[in-house]
Write a structure and sequence with these properties.
It is built from 3 helices and 14 strands. The protein is mostly beta strands. The chain has a single domain, classed as Lipoprotein localisation LolA/LolB/LppX (outer membrane lipoprotein receptor (LolB), chain A), CATH 2.50.20.10. It has a 14-stranded mixed β-sheet with strand order 7-8-9-10-11-12-13-1-2-3-4-5-6-14, with helices on one face. The protein starts with a helix and ends with a strand.
Length: 263
């Protein structure tokens, strides 16, 4: 009897600790229209350059996000810790209930490595493995851009058609075989990205919302990514609850002998 009471007290303490350790409230910002000099509005090059200058520049990024993962209809609510060293590596740790890590990934411009702790397996593939789940126009820099709410660099180009729409600026055009649309708000930060290739049933849709300020940088706290390639569909809804830039970061990724290699 005493043992049962003790167990209940321990469980109660754990629950109280879990719900009391809430992240510091982030500063939600109102998106102010970007003031562009009249003479700079006359050329496409100046408009494109103004958009480029509004994208987040950084050396490292770390973020903690409450996330909903939907992979081919299998839905899971998890926490994702994301670390990025610009141009070099993206590290992701996925945890489930009570902070237990279920998977860890390390993505570089050349490779993808994944530890699946639930299944005791380890996957190592070249970067192009990702094309099973998304378009071949997606590269490493694309992933970096999407995870912090930046514009995909290749979409801001001189061939793009630029139009004003309800205070937004809309860029559209074709990137190889993909028809794309990039919507930036009056503040020249990205609101929506759409890339579609109907011929081979490929698409990626991204929406950014709830903009916050972190270390003088403004980024979306809510990033919803939907990608599909034929019958394969991946949806990731990220809600950042903690973000930081340009801090010293570690990217631990050690594979013990107990993990079986997946071919």
């Amino acid at each position: 009897m005493k043992k049962n009471i003790l167990n209940r007290l321990i469980l109660l303490c754990c629950l109280m600790l879990l719900f009391s350790c809430k992240a510091k409230k982030q500063l939600i910002v109102t998106r102010q229209p970007e003031v562009v000099k009249a003479k700079d509005e006359n050329t496409k090059a100046n408009k494109l350059n103004a958009i480029r200058l509004k994208q987040i520049d950084f050396n490292t990024f770390s973020g903690k996000a409450a996330a909903k993962l939907n992979i081919d209809g299998r839905v899971n609510d998890v926490t994702m810790n994301i670390r990025i060293k610009k141009g070099q590596q993206i590290w992701v740790s996925i945890t489930a209930i009570l902070g237990l890590e279920v998977a860890r990934a390390l993505i570089t411009p050349d490779s993808i490595k994944v530890i699946n702790r639930l299944e005791g397996s380890y996957l190592k593939k070249p970067f192009n493995y990702i094309y099973q789940f998304t378009s071949r126009q997606i590269n490493y820099k694309t992933l970096e851009s999407l995870l912090i709410g930046n514009a995909i660099p290749e979409l801001i180009n001189e061939q793009a058609d630029i139009k004003a729409n309800n205070g937004n600026v809309v860029l559209s055009g074709n990137l190889n075989d993909l028809a794309y649309t990039l919507v930036v708000g009056p503040d020249l930060r990205v609101t929506k990205t759409s890339m579609v290739n109907t011929a081979v049933s490929q698409s990626i849709q991204v929406e950014n919302a709830g903009f916050i300020q972190t270390n003088s940088r403004i980024m979306p706290s809510q990033i919803n990514i939907n990608s599909s390639v034929k019958e394969k569909k991946v949806q990731i809804d990220l809600h950042y609850i903690k973000t930081d830039f340009d801090q010293s970061l570690d990217f631990p990724f050690n594979v013990s002998g107990r993990f079986s290699i997946v071919n």
